[in-house]
Amino acid sequence: MNRSTHTALALAATLALLAGCETSPEAIKPTAAAPIQTRSVTAPGTGSAGATSTAAAQSQVATVNLAGAGAAGASTSGANRAAGAGATAMLAAPTQRIVYFDFDSFVIKDDYRGMLDGHAKALAAAKARHAVVEGHTDERGGREYNLALGQKRAEAVVKSLALLGVGQGQLEAVSFGEERPAAQGSDESTWARNRRAELKDR
Amino acid sequence: MPTPSIPHAPLTCQPRRRRFLGAVGVYGAHGALSSLAALAPKPAAAQFRVEINGVGATQVPVVIAPLRDEAQSGVAVSAVVSADLQRSGLFRSLPADMALDERSTLDLPAWRAKGADAVVAGSVNKLADGRFDVRYKLWDAVRNEQLLGQSKVVLAADLRLAAHRVADEIHQKLTGERGVYATRIAYVVRTGRRYALHVTDADGEGGQVALASPESIISPAWSPDGKHLAYVSFETQKAVVWVQDLSSGERRMVANFRGSNSAPAWSPDGKRIALTLSQDGLAQLYTLPVSGGTPVRLTSSGAIDTEAVYAPDGSQIYFVSDRGGGPQVYRVPAGGGNVERVTYTGSYNISPTISPDGKLLAYIGREGNAYRVMTQELDTGQVTQLSDTQDDESPSFAPNGRLLVYASRMQGSDVLMTTTLDGKIKTRLLSSGSDMREPAWGPFGR
Question: Are B159 and B132 in contact (CB under 8 A)?
């Protein structure tokens, strides 16, 4: 019999009695100053923080730092953000590029037919143009599942554009899930503005 | 191994009579301890990194003396050890009221009289080459004998790691189980519009940044050897799966197909990655060699299939599908085959993960508007709710299977929590005030 089994058997029998006798549990407090972070972020190849040693620290992590490559995408979504919740009023406008969805829904409402028809005609007339449809969800639920839900919304828009004559090669459906909300907040009007698919030129 | 210390004394009320009570109490006999709920310790001060909520139960009292000269090393080694042991919920730290080191001659009966079951003391010495020698001893005050005496020579940058290894050794000696203090956790920090994939010690400290990006990063997944992370980055304005070598920083796209590429999971042998692709329309599961190659489709449903995770023996892949209406957990043989539904309780169950022994499924279940950490025993179907918060996400097992780390929200911030598998002891990992999310607990070894 190994040590832990032995111990567990012996003590399981006595636990109830002993547990009832346990006195004065104390609040857990630090016995010394809290440990401080000592390992600074190190650029690749600079080695360890060891004062005089040149050997690398164990489990050293190299940092990859990406520049602000996403600025273009971010500013586009910022422009779209201005359209916001009031968007349903100006659906047919050719500049409108956002389809909003009901909760847990992938159905493109009839309101958006004119808008999508306009985009479809423009794309069908210019076969060299490419567009991407980005699907988005509200913040509720898991990130990966929301990514898949956003993809389903984007696919719904791509399918309807394809039915209207746009070549499949001109379109790509992608998803940002809940990662790129158009509006910040945790109420139904915010969530409604985030459940969307955006049509963007590539 | 030494003979275990078995109580054969009459079972009178002797508080903290023997060690191991904590281990048995927390892990083995929840019911017997429920009467102690009223005696639960108060949450520690907010600035202290070990914030323990819930039932303290019976904890092994250990004196951890400040290591002699540790202040000169720049790392409060003994405080790291003490915080580690307390975070497990199995130990309680007692103050040392005198200076001690590994050469001290201890009056163990006197320490026993002060309530200690065990005593730790040691020293940190700077060597001529700049490295540090961390020495310590562990004494059993109940049986009046020395249990451990160790020395570790490390770089200054590895002092926290050395402290975690000391805590692991003490944990193993006193409980018979492997500790996870020297393991690492990966998670994503969002600060304003910047995202960073962090790799830290299991206590959330000693943080290093693997990737900093202006776009979101989600779903980090550790390779079984702990040397690589797979993750989803939106840096190219779409979801792409990358694999990064942590020590060199080398990274490459492993899946950049049409549509979204997401939810990577490593096979236990580290050779394949299961993931979600939408190249044929809806999100479906595929597997792919880590070295690259053609994805092999694993599921074919007219619904969403995502969040694949391998069972530890590699035979099955658990995943989420909404093929039955709402999302539920299913499983399929790793090479493909019949799909079987696993969760039946509730209408929204996502983010499955399997315990290292393959017996327990942890996942997020929705009840009303609350998303909570749940577990289900795979052989009995027994479901347990572990958290009572509202917005919990991304559970991940510690490699010893005794704790889960998960993301939650607290006072408007994204935070990381750990919980024991009975949900009774929860701790919050250190927060710098930034949003922390998407935790993934790394394997043993580093």
Answer: yes
